[in-house]
Design brief:
By secondary structure, the protein is of the alpha/beta class. It has 3 domains: 211 residues, FAD/NAD(P)-binding domain (3-Layer(bba) Sandwich); 155 residues, 2-Layer Sandwich (D-Amino Acid Oxidase, Chain A, domain 2), CATH 3.30.9.10; 102 residues, 3-Layer(aba) Sandwich (Glutaredoxin), CATH 3.40.30. It contains 13 helices and 25 strands. Strands 1, 2, 8, 9, 10, 11, 17 and 18 form an 8-stranded mixed beta sheet that branches. Helix 1 packs parallel to helix 7. It is globular. This is FAD-dependent oxidoreductase. InterPro entries: FAD-bd, FAD/NAD-bd_sf, RIFMO-like. Keywords: FAD, Flavoprotein.
């Protein structure tokens, strides 16, 4: 292990691995450590959302993840042993993203793929290496690490990224609060072999009074992931639980046979957000910064987007291309989303797990009918896809966001516009500042972009662009993480120049 690095990453789950990948791709030196002996063998997170796949194009790993995962055809809703609704999921967001589906890819497999990708870039995880403590100086952080052989070594880094989970040592040492609470329910997750389920190969959620279970297929014949809650006195001693101890009412209502339990685990779920995502040279990402219920399959994806949001900013500062003030935008942008997400998933989880006759009636009678009818409307399907896929996430209130052109504002995710002569997301595979124009680019804008080394992508105007809400001939300046930084209807080169000057960001050339 080197004695010095640009960024020390503590925790080699998906969040830490993605941060390491994006930093390495941008030429930033990283050291990534984890106290475990290797990638996880268990998996709670199952879904990879469309926004994550869009950003995975920057490392050319989106196709590999899709090939390794499983596109869920539909979600089936059951209540008290009866099939109540089937909601198709394939192509739910076909007008929103090139990845209009729900992809199931267990976290343990996902982590191993990310480790392999990082190794291909010349970086290996230092397993069985634990952060003991750290001290911050004026220009660096000195961390004391305990290696597998028990030896303690010091490492100096410009910045420290805490991706070390809900019990984060980094969060405790910087004194960040972690307000929220813990759900009384005890969750379980099991990897099982199932026969008799119909339709096979699809997702199923079943309710039976206060008991519920979620059944997910991940592409292998008869192999499913079961997620549910443990109730009553059995939850008081989770260390003694086996699969035979959990409630089976909802499971039995699916009319299936579980022939084999390959793996079983139980865990508590929290809903918390830290008050500081950054303190000096230390940052918190993923579960170290926010935890919430698994409703909607958002947790792992949120941590990954934390990492990508921070990575380009750290790279700019480490390379002397931006002032340290740029790093303040990380908390502003990600904390607001985390708080909204915790509130949303909390409401959904409370609905699913609420006890009582009225709650049971709504879940088993009203909800399936409403879901089946609502999902027949294209507008409802698209709205739900946007919410779950995290494609609605914007940074409009960020100090890095400016302007409006058409319906697109600074801080928005750039609309995916495949209706023209080219896919406008192809250029987003590059981790760099770039400008998009839909229509014709002014000569002075083209000259300014060429002079400053910023790629200019011009897309001939078409009806699809107008329908999507982009303004004709406007300039859209895109950040390295592909969000709109500046939307200028006048496409004025001087406006772009002032944008960079005001934020102290050095232009590429």
């Amino acid at each position: 292990m080197a004695a010095q690095t640009d960024v020390l990453i503590v925790g080699a789950g998906p969040t830490g691995l993605v941060l390491a990948l994006w930093l390495t791709k941008q030429g930033v030196g990283v050291t990534i450590v984890d106290k475990n002996s290797g990638p996880g063998e268990a998996s709670r997170a199952m879904a990879v959302q469309a926004r994550t796949l869009e950003l995975y194009r920057q490392l050319d790993i989106a196709d590999a993840v899709i090939d390794a995962g499983y596109k869920t055809p539909a979600m089936n809703m059951w209540a008290r042993g009866s099939h109540r609704a089937r909601i198709p999921l394939v192509d739910a967001g076909r007008a929103v993203s090139a990845y209009p589906f729900v992809l199931i890819y267990p976290q343990d497999r996902h982590e191993r793929l990310l480790v392999q990708q990082l190794h291909a870039l010349g970086v290996d995880v230092h397993w069985q290496t634990e952060l003991l403590r750290f001290e911050e100086g004026e220009s660096h952080v000195t961390a004391m690490l305990k290696q597998a052989d028990g030896q303690e070594v010091a490492l100096t880094a410009a910045y420290l990224a805490g991706c070390d989970g809900a019990r984060s040592l980094v969060r405790h040492q910087i004194g960040s609060a972690f307000e929220g609470g813990t759900y009384k329910q005890l969750f379980y997750v099991a990897d099982v072999r199932v026969t008799g389920i119909e339709p096979a190969g699809e997702a199923h959620i079943a309710f039976d009074q206060s008991d519920f279970v979620l059944l997910l297929c991940y592409g292998e014949k008869d192999q499913y992931r079961l997620i549910g809650t443990v109730r009553d006195e059995r939850a008081e001693h989770p260390e003694q639980l086996t699969f035979a101890d959990v409630g089976h009412d909802a499971i039995n209502g699916l009319n299936l046979k579980i022939s084999e339990v390959n793996w079983f685990s139980s865990y508590r779920v929290h809903h918390r957000v830290t008050d500081h995502f950054r303190r000096g040279r230390a940052f918190l990402l993923g579960d170290a910064a926010h935890v919430h219920s698994p409703a909607g399959g958002q947790g792992m994806n949120t941590g990954i987007l934390d990492a990508i949001n921070l990575a380009w900013k750290l790279a700019a500062v480490v390379k002397g291309k931006a002032p340290e003030a740029l790093l303040d935008s990380y908390q502003i942008e990600r904390q607001a989303f985390a708080r909204t997400l915790v509130e949303t998933t909390d409401k959904l989880f409370s609905f699913v797990t609420a006890q009582g006759g009225l709650a049971d009636f709504v879940r088993t009678r009203i909800a399936p009918i409403f879901a089946s009818v609502a999902y027949k409307r294209a507008s409802v399907r698209e709205y739900l896809f946007r919410v779950v896929s995290q494609t609605t996430l914007d940074y409009r209130d960020s100090p890095l966001s400016q302007g409006r052109a058409g319906e697109v504002q600074g801080g928005d995710r750039l609309p995916w516009l495949p209706g023209g002569t080219a896919d406008n997301y192809d250029s987003l595979a590059a981790i760099e500042w770039q400008v998009h124009v839909y229509g014709e680019a002014k000569a002075d804008l083209a000259q300014w972009c060429a002079q400053h080394g910023i790629a200019l992508h011009v897309f001939p105007w078409g009806p699809a662009y107008e329908k999507a809400g982009v303004a004709r001939n406007a300039a859209y300046l895109l950040r390295p993480d592909t969000y709109v930084a500046l939307a200028d209807p006048e496409a004025d080169a001087s406006t772009l120049n002032r944008y960079f000057e005001a934020r102290g960001v050095v232009l590429p050339a």
